[in-house]
Design goal:
single chain, 109 residues, mainly alpha, 1 helix, ion transport, transport, V-ATPase_G, hydrogen ion transport
Length: 109
Amino acid sequence: MESNHGGGIQQLLAAEHEAQQIVNAARTAKMTRLKQAKDEAETEIAEHKTSTEQGFQRKLEATSGDSGANVKRLEQETDAKIEQLKNEASRISKGVVEMLLKNVTTVNN
């Protein structure tokens, strides 16, 4: 009977050793997959960051160009408005001066 128990123990030890090898192989596969997933995620993050940065730079360049054009357009509009106001002031200034002199020199009782 002891030989039967000895053989059973050997079988149990062999099964335990085989189970340990299976668990170790599963752990190794899991660690490999986790490392691969981490690397894939880092690559994807870097690509997204690059894409986002490029989009930002394109928008920045587009709005910067518009900003310069807008400033130039506003300067032109402002200069035109100033010129228009100067012309209007010179056109009516003689009449305003005459009206002021008339009202200042006229005495009402």
